[in-house]
Design goal:
Layout (H helix, E strand, L loop, with lengths): L28 H7 L6 E5 L10 H11 L4 E5 L18 E5 L5 H5 L25 H12 L5 E4 H5 L5 E3 L4 E3 L2 H5 L3 E3 L4 H12 L13 E5 L7 E4 L63 E4 L3 H6 L1 H13 L8 E6 L2 E5 L8 H8 L17 H6 L2 E3 L1 E2 L10 H5 L4 E2 L2 H14 L6 E2 L1 E3 L13 H6 L19 H11 L6 E2 L7 H4 L3 H10 L4 E7 L3 H7 L4 H17 L5 E8 L6 H13 L8 E2 L7 H8 L20 H11 L7 H10 L17 H14 L1 H6 L25
Parallel strand pairs: 1-2, 1-3, 3-4, 4-7, 9-10, 10-11, 13-17, 16-18, 19-20, 20-21
Antiparallel strand pairs: 5-6, 7-8, 8-12, 11-12, 14-15
């Protein structure tokens, strides 16, 4: 049973608060000596360069622990080839905290095509290779080599998304939980300020780390399930055909089937996982809300060993997991790894507004640590004038890991706290010229948006509040955001406030006043939005709105741009090779781009990050948004290099380098009619291409673009459909 929720402010500060606040959290013994420290209470090992800014995880956790009175040291990007670098600050009194950094180390180091990157935006001089693959595991092992008896706690998005057995794109296999591989004592998932503070105070009070098993947002290893817990078995998939006896898999044997039984139950069987390891199971009543007497019930997921060999069962486990992500009704999840039980407590309770303000109001220097000597750190340059105003996302996009990490309940800062940070940037950050580069977060416009009813919010199991349509219980009033924008613009010394975070335009159209404010004052010529696709099939797999919503927003955008006397453009982003996307879907998307005169320069091939629903689709070729069955239809997923390259090429149909590939695909699909220089054709014929090259040699680039019917390369189109192209060309 998890402990009662404690406020961040409820703890008595640790005795070391007498040392005060460090200018920077120390990275060397010399800095510790200057501060008068003989040792660190907590040492954070991170894969990022140490930037003392609230957009960097090591700074947020380090400063939050410091504010509780603990002495916190930082070991940033250590040499992982030996334990020596992990002993640089000595032995921590309480524990090591290990993080891969702001990004998953594998996504940081490899492209969507598994090619190694040679740069790293979180490293001085953008230098690649400064962190290992699977950094959480490697760093943890070195910490254990250095000081075996010191408690080890892992966190960050890398640990968060690998907290259970998960499909690993880079090895094309299901891997064990990172908790098992790292041999850590506790894994923290999600935003972990409350959990790490609770753990620090409890270890400081003398409690053994092995006894800390009741904190939300944590996972750990047990040899066996403790007495008194009741199991909900979800280790197998329903066999097709009639299911008699208990109509609800959660029905108690002494009950009749309740009329209110949910049709989207996450468990599909009452059998045990292994025939040779029978367990006594008490089946519980199930509804969309967690029963009041359900505090000591856990859901048993299929074991790692089963998931490793059964991709369809993996899709089922993904569905079960995503049904248990609402902190208001989620239950404990248990998954066997060999002879051990991985125990995952329910998600953390979101921070209250005053707690969020406290986290962002620490004594951040807002610059990189002086040891870097002013070196360029691209990730810092990108965010140094930006402000995070909220956390979480209720969009539920299946390809995105924000919801799995931060949750779908929005945590917003107060307006006063945000304005205070604007003033700090103005007064503290070198190079500030009057422009705030962003007021945002995971999305630009979910600030203070929440459910109308706390009771409804805590009982809901919908994976998205905006798909397939906006929930009637969701507050869509953007007036708090509009007021924030106006107040930020009025801060003395601020000339402009830009909005760079991705806009959820299906929400924005519900509040025209917000769209007008955004377009009139906060768009610097271009606004990035992400339709992701144009076809209903892929969009349904992504849980994204249809293009009708895009058209509504575009009309508003154009209208308010004209009224403001500004020439402004929408820049849409699309994903290629997403599960559920066929070649025909990509061709239709390319036709839409051609008709609307868009030339896409940056294309993102689908990247199967751990734990996402779309990753389960990719691996299993099944749809976990519905009840998973072995005999259900397969989802097409572009997996081979040839398939993924083709989908990417279709998005960049205008690039001559792709014409040979696109022509071959069109001919193979029986769509040779789309080859030519006509308005509704995608690529020129071989003869036209040759003629264009000859003209280019004579007259330069202009001749090449004329025969394609496209604007000269480098020009960004307004994206307005031609007057006679309102009726869309489709296959």
């Amino acid at each position: 049973m998890t402990q009662p929720i404690t406020s961040i402010f409820s703890h008595r500060k640790y005795w070391a608060e007498c040392y005060g606040t460090a200018p920077f959290l120390p990275m060397s013994r010399a800095e510790m000596d200057e501060l008068g420290w003989d040792s660190c209470d907590i040492i954070i090992v991170t894969g990022d360069a140490y930037v003392d800014h609230p957009s960097f995880g090591m700074a947020v956790i380090g400063r939050s622990l410091e504010a509780q009175g603990f002495r916190v040291g930082i070991i940033a990007q250590p040499d992982w080839t030996s334990k020596d670098a992990f002993m640089a600050l000595g032995e921590p009194n309480l524990f090591f905290g290990v993080t891969a950094g702001n990004m998953d180390s594998m996504i940081n180091r490899y492209t969507a095509d598994r090619r190694m990157r040679h740069d790293d935006a979180y490293t001085p001089h953008n230098e690649g290779g400064k962190r290992p693959d699977r950094a959480v595991t490697v760093y943890s092992q070195r910490c254990k080599e250095a000081y075996k008896h010191v408690p080890l706690i892992i966190g960050s998005i890398e640990a968060s998304l690998r907290r259970l057995a998960h499909y690993d794109y880079w090895s094309d296999s299901v891997r064990r939980s990172v908790l098992v591989d790292s041999t850590a004592d506790i894994l923290l998932y999600g935003n972990a300020e409350r959990a790490i503070i609770d753990i620090a105070h409890r270890i400081a009070s003398g409690e053994k780390v092995s006894e800390i098993t009741d904190i939300r947002g944590t996972a750990f290893i047990r040899k066996a399930v403790p007495d008194g817990w009741r199991e909900i078995d979800s280790t197998r998939i329903d066999a097709p055909g009639k299911i008699d006896a208990l109509l609800s898999p959660y029905q108690r044997t002494d009950q009749k089937d309740p009329a209110s039984c949910s049709s989207n139950a996450t468990s599909n069987t009452t059998s045990t996982e292994d025939a040779d390891a029978p367990q006594v199971i008490t089946i519980l009543p199930h509804s969309d809300a967690k029963p009041a007497n359900d505090e000591q019930a856990y859901i048993r997921l299929p074991s790692y060993e089963k998931l490793r060999n059964d991709s369809v069962l993996y899709a089922h486990a993904s569905r079960v997991f995503h049904k248990e992500t609402n902190p208001g009704n989620a239950r404990v999840l248990v998954q066997r790894h060999g002879i051990h039980e991985l125990w995952m407590n329910p998600p953390p309770i979101p921070l209250e507004t005053d707690e969020m303000d406290w986290v962002f109001d620490h004594a951040y220097q807002r610059v990189p640590h002086p040891t870097y000597g002013g070196a360029n750190i691209p990730a810092y340059e990108m965010i140094r004038f930006s402000i995070n105003i909220m956390r979480g996302c209720f969009g539920g996009c299946t390809f995105c890991s924000i919801t799995e990490h931060e949750g779908r309940i929005i945590q917003s800062r107060s307006e006063d706290s945000i304005i205070s940070e604007v003033e700090k940037i103005r007064d503290m950050v070198p190079g500030f010229t009057g422009t705030i580069s962003d007021l945002g977060g995971p999305t630009a416009n979910m600030y203070n948006l929440t459910c109308k009813s706390k009771d409804i919010e805590e009982s809901c199991r919908r994976p998205s509040c905006v798909f397939p349509g906006i929930c009637k219980n969701l507050i869509t009033d953007h007036s708090p955001t509009t007021q924030l924008y106006r107040r930020a613009r009025a801060v003395p010394g601020v000339k402009r406030v830009a909005i760079a975070s991705g806009l959820r335009y299906d929400l924005a159209v519900e509040d025209p006043e917000y769209v007008k404010e955004l377009v009139t004052h906060h768009v610097g010529g271009y606004l990035k939005i992400a339709p992701e696709h144009t076809e209903d099939g892929p969009l349904s797999m992504m849980m994204k709105p249809g293009m009708g919503t895009y058209d509504r927003f575009k009309k508003m955008f154009d209208k308010y741009s004209r009224e403001a006397g500004k020439e402004q453009y929408l820049i849409p982003y699309f994903i290629s090779a997403h599960p559920g996307t066929t070649d025909e879907d990509m061709i239709n998307l390319a036709l839409w781009l051609k008709e609307n005169e868009f030339r896409v320069d940056q294309v993102q091939n689908f990247y199967p990050s751990p734990m996402c629903s779309a990753t389960a689709m990719y691996h299993a070729e099944k749809n976990p948004l519905k009840r998973v069955k072995y005999k259900s239809d397969k989802i097409f997923s572009a997996k081979t290099k040839a398939q993924r390259t083709l989908h990417k090429a279709l998005l960049r149909y205008h690039d001559p380098d792709n014409w040979v590939l696109v022509r071959a695909a069109l001919k193979k699909a029986g769509l040779a009619r789309l080859i030519g220089s006509g308005k509704h054709q995608l690529v020129p014929s071989e003869e036209a291409e040759l003629k264009g090259k000859q003209q280019q040699m004579k007259g330069g680039r202009r001749a090449l673009t004329q025969h394609t019917g496209l604007p000269p390369k480098g020009r960004v189109s307004k994206g307005r459909a031609p007057k006679k192209a309102r009726r869309r060309t489709r296959l």
